[in-house]
TrEMBL record:
Residues 5-62 form the HTH lysR-type domain. Keywords: DNA-binding, Transcription, Transcription regulation. GO terms for molecular function: DNA binding; DNA-binding transcription factor activity. Coiled coil: none annotated. InterPro entries: LysR-type_TF_proteobact-type, LysR_HTH_N, LysR_subst-bd, WH-like_DNA-bd_sf, WH_DNA-bd_sf. This is LysR family transcriptional regulator, glycine cleavage system transcriptional activator. Transmembrane segments: none annotated. Belongs to the LysR transcriptional regulatory family.
Amino acid sequence: MKRLPPLNAVRTFEVAARLASFVAAGKELGVSAAAVSQQVRHLEDYFGKKLFVRSGNRLSLTDAGLAIFPQTSRALDDIAAMTVRLLEGEMRTRLIISVPFSLAEVWLAPKLAVLLESYPQLSVDVRVEDDPVDLARHDVDIRVSYGDYHYPSLEAIPLVHDQVVPLCAPELWYRHGNSDFDLTRIHESLFIHTQWGPSYASHPTWSDWYASEVGQASPDPALGRRSGLSSLSITLAKLGCGIALGQKLIAQPDLAAGRLIVLSARSLPLGHPYCAFVPAEKRKRPNVQSFIALLATP
């Protein structure tokens, strides 16, 4: 008989490790944080090793926890996939795609339209959600994510490494700009600052752009317009509300149509590429392979 650890404790450990929180794990599992902690202690007692360490409010994996997390995640993904196959009886023709909010409408939708030309009978379910997503539990076929680090048990397939450039509506530049396209002569109140959120530290800002381009002090965010989404910053720029440091990927349709103009050839790369993640048992499906190829096409 194979020697196995307590499987409920293993499942609880995987969720807590993935979410880096006993409270969040409890919400996903439908139990209290105390119950999650108890199951983790049960698993630690079984292995005789500490799996988590707390530093203030932050929960991190120990070396032992890091060693078992990827295999644990893969094993549970395999069990979930087996369950889906047995319950459905055959491979379905529905494609479930999970994407971040900023990419759904402008970037993903046109590529999806191309896919449906080849697979007109394909049923598609597009889910807009933040990382991390439980791909196995929600039966996701393709997850598009910023960065390659959210799903350690899956291979990251690089799609595109986006860049940001200064851009605004032509009408705004005609009113407030100059013939030299010199941003240092623009009032600080006209700059749109994207607030990427506490989970992101690698996204370029106006401070980074000014340091690389002109070596001068950047506009003060307190004096400008602030936005909580990259896509919203571009929309505000398109409506003439200011000058954004916008993602080319999201702004491309408006740039092509002349609704936005680029104010400098100088661009900065995002800290990470966008990647696709596909559960191993779904990689050989023709529609999945076709869509991954489309996503990677410029």
